[in-house]
Design a protein that fits this description.
Blueprint lengths: L1 H21 L2 E6 L4 E2 L4 E7 L12 E8 L5 E5 L1 E6 L2 E8 L5 E11 L2 E5 L3 E6 L7 E3 L5 E3 L4 E2 L3 E3 L14 H10 L4 E5 L27 H17 L2 E8 L25 H6 L1 H18 L5 E8 L3 H4 L11 H18 L5 E3 L19 E6 L5 H12 L3 E7 L12 H16 L12 H6 L6 H15 L4 E2 L2 E3 L3 E7 L2 E7 L6 E8 L7 E8 L4 E9 L4 E9 L2 E8 L10
Parallel strand pairs: 2-10, 14-15, 15-16, 16-17, 17-18, 19-20
Antiparallel strand pairs: 1-3, 3-7, 4-5, 4-8, 6-7, 8-9, 8-10, 11-12, 12-13, 21-23, 22-25, 23-24, 24-29, 25-28, 26-27, 26-29
């Protein structure tokens, strides 16, 4: 009898193991009951399956498979939340871009092989007034899923204050200040002192703590808070996932989680880009970020690197190995392709250089927009943008600009020069084919100088342009004898930017090339950015294919708005 009991026990145990092997998904719960288009729907999934590293997608990966009512199939990575192989909790966060019925199931992979798929379920998505995710539209604008055009206005908020800086400069202070003054965009970094997702050792900060975990929990928490804050403020941001300093041995390489010293797979910065194990580790990071935060419509762009050229062209005395261009370009090609495959929302993908190009990188098909940084040469912004879009046929962005790059020169004695540069850089962008206006560095300095309210003027003209042309822009030939001049046509309205570089005011004539049209007379208004005041300058008549405005007074900066008027006698354009 004991023999039969023993056999029965073994059979029962084997059957139990088989059930567990066949059903590793113990429970799945849709936490969001009423689902709105462009609103997040959340899932909890309980697994019972062994693993060592839940962040290593080659060991274990859980995906949410969806089919929309239009038949579009999507695959969204889910992320590990808590627990172990006996019982672990995973989460899925999905933002539907369509209305209607979605059918879904979960798929589990172990060692890159599918081992289980759950039964199919569904949910209904109701309409909402939200616009969705941002995508590249053309050289001038981005556009939402809704089709609404968007031009980004803002600045760098590279990080929250470090231990040696004024503690008031937090996201909670800086971002509401930007939003309330008309900005809609900013750029920020992940690094050892800010949002340190993969930095197990942090630096120059009391906000974060060292961690032995694969991902730093304090960095995760702050990123959660940042995404929620941006969602509440209506701000969009570009997230720089890494910085060149993390690859310079004399800088933050000693803190880099890819470094063998810290248990990573790369012995040198070059191996960060060339090692298969290092690239697999980076893809784990990208997958986790897409799974945890990709749902947010307010993450506008994933930026792989801040100024990657600095890790190639400027070795320090401690560097023994230079990184060849081909490794940088191949790495960006592989990672941008991975993001486009893994991110179901197709966020914008970019990377940046300081001022030196990496061979071949500007032409990578899955890098949506190119980006460089300009210091000490703000006047070069318009020509630089036009040159690069002509050469590489994709949108171009000035991700950083400033009167000076040198920290030692950022002082209030030079404040007027910095302020002048700050203003003209924004207007240069407004009148150039770029979807993201140039973003100033030195955010703390300009906050001290109370420059943030200047965004209200930029916002005001930006809205007029977008509404007039419904997102269409044309650069127009213009001449001014005593001021720098730029012009664009949006719809039927011509906008002109006049900049006086002299210390005293000037009076100038302005000649604008007109596009063919029926309008004979044009009404002219002047907008002064500093005061945000409008003044009517009367009307002007078309003189064949141009109009000439006489004796325009320019103190510092002036915006002219030239609209078709009634066909009446106006101020002579002769």
């Amino acid at each position: 009898m004991k023999k039969y009991i023993w056999i029965f026990s073994i059979l029962f145990f084997a059957m139990t193991l088989q059930v567990h092997a066949q059903n590793p998904v113990v429970k799945q719960t849709r936490l969001t009951k009423q689902v709105k288009q462009f609103g997040v729907v959340e899932f909890d999934i309980v697994l019972k399956t062994p693993f060592v590293n839940p962040y290593d997608q080659m060991e274990i990966a859980l995906d949410l498979l969806l089919t929309s009512s239009s038949g579009k199939k999507l695959e969204l990575p889910c992320y590990y939340f808590s627990g172990d192989g006996d019982k672990s909790v995973w989460k899925g966060k999905f933002t539907p871009q369509e209305q209607g019925k979605f059918v879904y199931s979960f798929q589990l992979r172990k060692q890159a092989k599918i081992i289980h798929k759950t039964n199919v379920d569904s949910f209904q998505v109701d309409a909402s007034s939200h616009d969705g995710f941002l995508h590249v539209n053309d050289y001038w604008t981005l556009k939402f899923d809704s089709g609404k055009p968007f031009r980004a206005i803002g600045e760098n908020v590279g990080w929250e204050s470090r231990t040696f800086e004024n503690p008031k400069w937090t996201y909670e202070y800086l971002l509401p200040t930007l939003s309330s003054n008309g900005a809609n965009f900013f750029r920020t970094w992940m690094c050892p002192w800010n949002l340190p997702l993969v930095w197990r050792k942090v630096d120059h900060t009391n906000r974060y703590v060292d961690s032995d975990s694969y991902f730093n929990a304090s960095g995760i928490q702050k990123m959660d808070e940042l995404v929620a804050l941006c969602d509440s403020l209506g701000l969009y941001f570009m997230l720089s996932i890494d910085a060149h300093g993390s690859l310079i041995p004399s800088s933050e390489w000693k803190l880099n989680s890819h470094n063998k010293v810290n248990g990573g797979p790369a012995g040198t910065p070059k191996e960060f880009f060339s090692s298969d194990a290092s690239k697999a580790m980076y893809k784990n990071r990208l997958r986790y970020m897409i799974a945890r935060w990709g749902y947010s419509t307010h993450i506008a762009a994933w930026e792989f690197f801040n100024e990657i050229d600095n890790a190639v062209f400027t070795p320090t005395p401690h560097d023994s190995i230079l990184i060849e261009h081909k490794y940088i370009t191949q790495w960006h090609d592989e990672m941008s392709t991975y993001v486009k495959k893994t991110d179901p929302y197709k966020h914008i993908v970019t990377t940046s250089v300081s001022h030196r190009n990496i061979k071949g990188m500007n032409d990578l098909v899955n890098i949506d927009l190119n980006q460089k940084h300009i210091y000490n040469k703000t006047s070069a912004i318009p020509d630089t943008i036009n040159e690069y879009i002509k050469r590489h046929h994709k949108p171009y962005v000035i991700g950083e600009f400033g009167y000076d790059w040198n920290w030692d020169n950022v002082k209030h004695e030079l404040g007027p020069q910095f302020d002048f540069d700050y203003k003209r850089g924004l207007w240069y962008g407004m009148f150039s084919p770029t979807p993201i206006l140039p973003m100033t560095w030195w955010w703390e300095f300009f906050d001290e100088r109370k420059m943030t309210p200047y965004f209200k003027a930029i916002h005001e003209i930006n809205e007029l342009m977008l509404n007039a042309g419904k997102g269409s822009y044309q650069q127009i030939e213009i001449r001014a004898d005593r001021a720098e001049a730029f012009s664009v046509k949006c719809g039927e309205i011509y906008f002109v930017y006049l900049l006086n570089k002299d210390t005293l005011g000037v009076v100038t004539d302005v000649s604008i090339a007109l596009k063919p049209g029926v309008a004979i007379a044009f009404d002219v208004k002047a907008f002064t950015p500093d005061t945000r005041e409008y003044h009517n300058l009367g009307s002007v008549l078309r003189n064949q294919n141009k109009c000439v405005l006489k004796d325009i007074s320019v103190a510092d900066e002036l915006i002219l708005i030239i609209s078709p008027g009634e066909n009446k006698t106006g101020r002579s354009s002769h």
